[in-house]
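Async update (no meeting this week)

Hi team, since we skipped the sync, here's where things stand on the single-chain job. The sequence we agreed to prioritize is pasted below, unchanged from the tracker. I ran it this morning and attached the output directly underneath so nobody has to dig for it. Comments welcome in thread, and please keep replies under the output.
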Amino acid sequence: MAGFGRHVLVETDDGKRVICHPRGKKSQVVVGDRIQWLPTQDEGTIEKVETRKNLFYRQDDMRTKSFAANLDQVLILIAAEPEFSESQLTRALIAAEAAKIKPVIALNKSDLAEPFGRAWAKLAPYRSMGYQMLALAIRPKSDQVEATSADHIQTSALLQLLDGKKTLVLGPSGAGKSSLTNLLIPQANVLTAEISQALNSGKHTTTSTTLYWVDVARTTALIDSPGFQEFGLNHIEPMQLAGLMPDLKAHAQACKFYNCTHLHEPGCGVILEYKSGSGSEGISTSRYRLYSDLFAELSQTRY
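Output:
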């Protein structure tokens, strides 16, 4: 359910919560794992982590950061203002594709008409690629503006999307992840305080990943994660990149060479499509530039 260092909070099938510790010095457990554990006085010891169906993580030169395991989907929350980073969004989408986890893009601050319009237009290539999208206007608790009918419709669509699934909420700092958690789980701050107390930690929820049940039946889970400013993809091979970017993948099969990098080769289907400038259905300049930059970045880390 949550973890701070080597302390993790485990929930049993009947809803009881226990502090557990892994055997050995390093913890390999992440939020969302199913484990086998043994009681030791009033706490427990983790004996085994069950086989995962997936693991969502990022990796840079210094370390690997695991977010959560056994996910049904990743909700990538970005905001219309301040303007979101297309590079961060693309990296998160690539990581989700690599882990075979469905990504959903949610654009927050739909109540800010002009910035939202610009941001929504910027996302046109991602809609063309088939990514599911949501418009949201999540207000912090301090904002006492009464919810409109549009807000209720958006919240209803979000709950429908989450229903019966385990969803990781991912996004840069300031996108509205904590406000989203508080909207769907009003007692989230109380639960976080209880977890911090149980783990002898004063850390706030945004410093660690925490799983919350949205419903009493414990069938719908929302996993709140810390905000990030960088998203390393060192676990991805450069030659894998195009296959993890739907707009490039759609044209890579037309390449003359099987080991095409899509950067300079003759007879490259990707370059041909990019240079044709066929609009929103093709490969945009920003997307091709992101691919080129990522390919160069990941190639450097191999040497």
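Quick observations from my side:
The CA atoms of residues 9 and 228 lie 23 Å apart.
The two ends are 38 Å apart (CA to CA).
Reply here if anything looks off.
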